[in-house]
Write a structure and sequence with these properties.
heterodimer; A: mainly alpha; 3-stranded antiparallel beta sheet; elongated; B: mainly alpha; 13 helices; 78% helix
């Protein structure tokens, strides 16, 4: 029972960690390599850009697989836990069903599905986490300002929120992705500008009711500086609400990112859950069930875990 | 009431201007030059007929002419027209329903729109019908049982359903019911091939058969939202003194339920306007997966073709419909629920 209660936390935290560290977990380049006495860290280079080309005219994978024969003495390397890259093709494994060597199977060009899922988490996290953080900061600041100052600021923020609510989110994302070229940073900006209203609405409402409470009035009466009241007295009261909103927004960003890449308009990345699902859908007629099942299960698991987290926090707050 | 109406209409038009201006601004920032795009297109077309721009200067002149025609530059000075002037020009032509953009065929543009609107209207209308037709009774049923075992199970199932992204649900249903598992429903389109000569009821059945999966996908998420909303409203009313009093007086439980439904239904009606953006977003996915030629498909096409005039027209259309329905649902809410009128003027 305890494990089941922890499961949503586990899924969300694991997804974020795996997403951030994807090139170190599943890759076809070594974490650490010693070539002719020179150290190289290709997987770490992959984390921040492109990995350097392999030694000589070999790819890193070829170099590594020839190591035991001892191409030149003293060379050695450590591969990541899952030594397959998201783009590494294998002509012998087209449409291969799940097996011990590849537990989630291979796709139509022999790429490893597990590795693609791991790197897909990277695509989702790189969009979702910064978008939610940015939306959270902007939304909380604007909402708090509107709720605390009231008056003209409140009216402006309220109108802005109502205006944003009229935009069909997906339509806006679609247009933005298409006209600005589908880049990760562009998607983050667009999503943040769509999601900040959720935070602003919640925080504004809470602020309006909190500022009438005794402890705030007492603090004002005692002459505590406004900034200190906001940060020390009022903000901690809203952590729960903000957390709920953040969890819901994270689920939305995962859904939106995979929807866009499903439609073929997502950021140009090595692999993405939505794109994998589209591919699985197209190849479903060939009987390759693992191509659509695993991405679908992953998306549902992550989105549901976010929702479960949000619901959990709300229940705790209510009691 | 008159004052409320006036304020409301003022707010409506200012929001409309805000929405279109933001879209205009965003599109303006896009690194796309319409004139260059069109000149390139003509060049490709010209290459087939043998008429190719010989020198760069001629090409530049052609691009400049196109810029003047599109209103991107001032015809007298040759300088780039400022954003606000172009927006006002767009607003002026939109007010007279000339949405195709300067230099485009107005008739063809409207034909595209008028072919797409009925499909999305059918999808969205049926979805709304399902959402409220099923959502209200289910929400009321749940609201009277909040905290009990059965309510918890159903509510959890609904929460899970809300968590499944729409495109995923569409794909899974498509896979399950049209190819991989059973073949109960047609995978694409709105009618079967060769069904034009059939009697009307056969065509109606055929249409309904084609609509089952798309409408299911489109209505699921709004259905869950309405159900949860109604459940909470009914649960609140269920604990209220007037309900307790009714029960104490021995009024039949069915009568009590009907009164509770009214408590849930009135606030839910205000949700209807807010659901429209969701339905529009859903239509993009659903029409893409099920190959239907509606507004969602048109939006997708506008994006692929980088057609800014079409994007503006679609944003205008959806926001007008959304704002109008918000307005109507607010108005209805005021008429039905006397308590709202007391709160604000």
């Amino acid at each position: 029972m305890k494990v089941i209660r922890l499961l949503p936390w586990l899924v969300v935290v694991a997804t974020i960690l795996i997403g951030l560290l994807a090139p170190l977990i599943a890759n076809d380049v070594p974490l650490l390599a010693k070539v002719d006495g020179v150290w190289a860290f290709p997987a770490f280079a992959d984390l921040f850009g492109d990995p350097p080309p392999g030694p000589g005219d070999l790819s890193w994978k070829q170099w590594w697989s020839r190591l035991p024969q001892g191409a030149s003495a003293g060379d050695w390397g450590i591969m990541p836990v899952w030594p397959y890259g998201p783009l590494e093709t294998d002509t012998r494994l087209f449409y291969e069903s799940p097996s011990l060597a590849h537990p989630l199977g291979n796709d139509d060009t022999g790429r490893d599905v597990l590795s693609r899922l791991v790197h897909g988490a990277g695509a989702a996290v790189r969009v979702g986490v910064p978008a939610v953080l940015a939306a959270g900061v902007v939304g909380t600041l604007l909402g708090a300002w509107a709720g605390f100052a009231r008056g003209a600021v409140d009216v402006v923020v309220q109108r802005l929120i109502e205006l944003m609510l009229c935009f069909p989110m997906l339509l806006f994302l679609l247009f933005a992705a298409a006209f600005f070229g589908a880049s990760t940073i562009g998607l983050v900006i667009v999503m943040a500008s769509l999601f900040w209203i959720s935070f602003a609405r919640i925080v504004r409402g809470e602020m309006l009711s909190l500022r009438e409470r005794e402890f705030v009035r007492v603090a004002i009466g005692l002459g505590v500086p406004t900034r200190r009241i906001l940060v020390r007295h009022m903000l901690p009261q809203m952590y729960g609400q903000i957390g709920v909103t953040a969890a819901f927004c994270l689920a939305s960003t995962v859904g939106a990112e995979s929807t866009l890449s499903f439609l073929g308009l997502g950021p140009r990345v090595e692999s993405s859950w939505g794109a994998m699902l589209r591919q699985g859908n197209e190849h479903a007629a060939t009987g390759a069930w693992h191509l659509w099942f695993f991405p679908a299960a992953t998306i549902v698991a992550v989105v549901l875990s976010c929702h479960a987290l949000a619901d959990r926090v709300r229940v705790v707050r209510a009691n | 009431m008159t004052r409320w109406l006036l304020l409301r209409l003022l707010w409506l038009s200012s929001t409309l201007i805000g929405v279109t201006f933001v879209t205009f601004l965003v599109l303006d920032r896009a690194p796309i030059d319409r004139a260059e795009l069109e000149a390139g297109r003509r060049r490709v077309a010209g290459a087939h007929s043998g008429a190719v721009y010989v020198d760069e200067a001629a090409r530049d002149r052609a691009v400049q002419q196109l810029r003047v025609r599109y209103g991107l530059v001032d015809p007298e000075t040759g300088e780039a027209a400022p954003l606000w002037r172009r927006y006002v020009a767009w607003l002026g032509s939109a007010a007279t329903l000339q949405l195709a953009g300067p230099g485009d065929d107005e008739r063809a543009f409207w034909r595209r729109l008028s072919e797409a609107v009925p499909v999305t209207l059918l999808l969205g209308g049926l979805s709304l019908l399902v959402v409220f037709g099923v959502g209200l009774p289910v929400g009321t049923w749940l609201g009277r049982r909040v905290g009990r075992h059965r309510e918890r199970i159903v509510s959890t199932v609904l929460l899970v359903a809300l968590g499944v992204p729409q495109f995923l649900l569409a794909t899974l249903l498509l896979l399950a019911f049209t190819s991989v598992w059973v073949q109960w429903f047609p995978p694409t389109g709105l009618s079967s091939l060769g069904s034009e000569g059939d009697p009307w009821f056969a065509r109606l059945l055929d249409r309904a058969w084609h609509l089952v999966l798309p409408v299911t996908v489109m209505s699921l998420a709004p259905f869950v939202m309405v159900t949860r909303f109604v459940r909470d409203a009914v649960a609140r009313a269920d604990r209220a003194p007037h309900t307790v009093c009714l029960r104490a007086l021995g009024v039949h439980e069915r009568v009590v339920a009907r009164r509770l439904l009214r408590h849930g239904a009135t606030p839910a009606a205000t949700l209807a306007g807010g659901l429209l953006p969701m339905l529009v977003g859903g239509s993009i996915v659903v029409e893409n997966v099920f190959s239907l030629d509606g507004l969602g498909h048109l939006a997708f096409q506008a994006v692929i073709d980088q057609d800014q005039a079409l994007v503006m027209a679609l944003v205008l259309l959806t926001s007008v419909v959304t704002l109008l329905s918000l307005f109507v649902s607010d108005l209805l809410h005021r008429l039905v629920d006397p308590r709202v009128r007391l709160v604000d003027g």
